[in-house]
Specification:
The chain is of the alpha/beta class. It has 5 helices and 7 strands, in the order ααααβββββββα.
Length: 166
C-alpha cells in the first residue's frame, strides 16, 4: 500500500480514520518511501509517524528520512527519534517524547503534553502544555503554556512582554 492509497480511502483526516485504514505492518515502509507534496499528504504522513511510534511502544521509532513535516502529529505515547525534522514537529502532541537534532517552524504548536528535545529549533509555535528543551531557538510564538528550556535555562516572558502582549 502507498500513501496515495490510504488518502483515497479516508473520509476525513483524523488519527482514528487513518489507523483504521493503514496496514500496520507496512507503516514504516510507507513513511520511508513517501514523498508528500501538499499539506493534506504531510498531515496524513505525520499521523502515520505517531501511529507507528505508539504501536512500537516502548521501543523507539527511528525515522531515517529528513525534513518530514508533522512528525509526531497528535502523538499520545511512545518515542520518536529523527535527525532533521521539518515544520510542525510534535504538533498537537498529547504525550510521548520526540528527539531531533534540528526542527523547523511551529515546533510543538498546540501541544498539550509530552516532551520535545532538540539541539536547534527554528521556531516554537503557540503551546498549551508539555515540555520543550533545546540548545538554540531562533523564534518563540507569544503564547507559551509548555515548560521551555533553552540551553538549560527555563524560558520566562518578562512582565513587560506579558503586559504588552508580546
Amino acid at each position: 500500500m502507498r500513501l496515495e492509497d490510504i488518502i483515497k480511502q479516508i473520509g476525513n483526516v483524523s488519527k482514528k480514520e487513518i489507523r483504521r485504514i493503514a496496514p500496520m505492518g507496512e507503516i514504516k515502509t510507507i513513511i520511508q518511501v513517501s514523498d508528500p507534496v501538499d499539506v493534506y499528504e504531510k498531515m496524513v504522513l505525520g499521523y502515520l509517524t505517531s501511529i507507528c511510534a505508539e504501536q512500537m511502544y516502548p521501543e523507539t521509532f527511528h525515522i531515517e528520512r529528513d525534513s518530514l513535516d508533522y512528525i509526531g502529529f497528535e502523538l499520545e505515547k511512545g518515542s520518536i527519534e529523527v535527525k532533521n525534522a521539518g515544520n510542525m514537529l510534535g504538533s498537537c502532541m498529547k504525550g510521548g517524547k520526540i528527539t531531533a537534532i534540528r526542527a523547523g517552524d511551529e515546533t510543538g504548536a498546540s501541544m498539550t503534553g509530552g516532551e520535545i528535545i532538540a539541539d536547534e529549533i527554528k521556531s516554537i509555535g503557540n503551546t498549551i502544555g508539555g515540555r520543550i528543551s533545546a540548545k538554540r531557538v531562533d523564534k518563540l510564538s507569544k503564547n507559551q503554556g509548555a515548560e521551555i528550556f533553552i540551553n538549560g535555562v527555563k524560558y520566562k516572558r518578562s512582565l513587560l512582554d506579558r503586559l504588552l502582549g508580546r
